[in-house]
Amino acid sequence: MITLEGDRLVFRFPDVHADADCAIEFQRTLRIPDDDKAYPLPPGLGSFPLRHLDDFAARVPARWQERGGVIMPMHQAEAMWINFGRGSFAAHDYPCAVKVAAGKINAVTGDAWVNHLNRDPQDYVVAGTQPWLDGYCVEKGYVRQFVAMPLGEGYTAEEQITGAGEHGGVQIVVHPMKAERYEALKRAREAERASMRHRFIGAPMPAACDMSMDMGLAPGGRMRQEIYDDPYGLDAWDQRHARRCFVTIANSLAWRAI
Known about the structure:
By secondary structure, the chain is α+β, with helices and mostly antiparallel strands.
């Protein structure tokens, strides 16, 4: 089950475990210079709005309707980062493996999109271990910032790698931890907390709707960011119960028209 809750994309897996959920936000941020210097991570400036694409089916191009998911506006050359959090305000923290791609280019490895998880090299991040992702990983400890650019002009990572601007947007697939692994982890956490307490506490779309309204993500300025290794191992993830969502990026003109 995937829902929108206050501009957060929330993935829930009640058929796996009652606690299994993961929330994803897309944060506006400052664009850093693309001058090959390495910059620190910029701050978040609030979430981009998200809307169910199906709610505007009569106003969007057919190719957007076919892939479904949600729609998000970005100005050309605007930057963002992706925040991984909890789907609820409960005290539990259910780990999930998250694959992120832009234009079906994996943001962690730079490889073409595949739905399953790979460990060597690791092509996903672990929500709960990885708090956020600011861009395409280009080498250990460094990423290139996510920057919105129009498809068809050769700027996006998709076009630079594949030579074609076909998909655009952001693709997300979330795999929950297997229930039995989570229960074992939960018991270990509870034992650790008990030990700590003991010690320390006691409108219609215009007819001229073409590729120019589609946006993708280009690699921008260079910044320091670690992509953390999966501490649980590939067999911890329930790949039978994955949820996926396509995030279409609309430019400001398309967003107003919709």
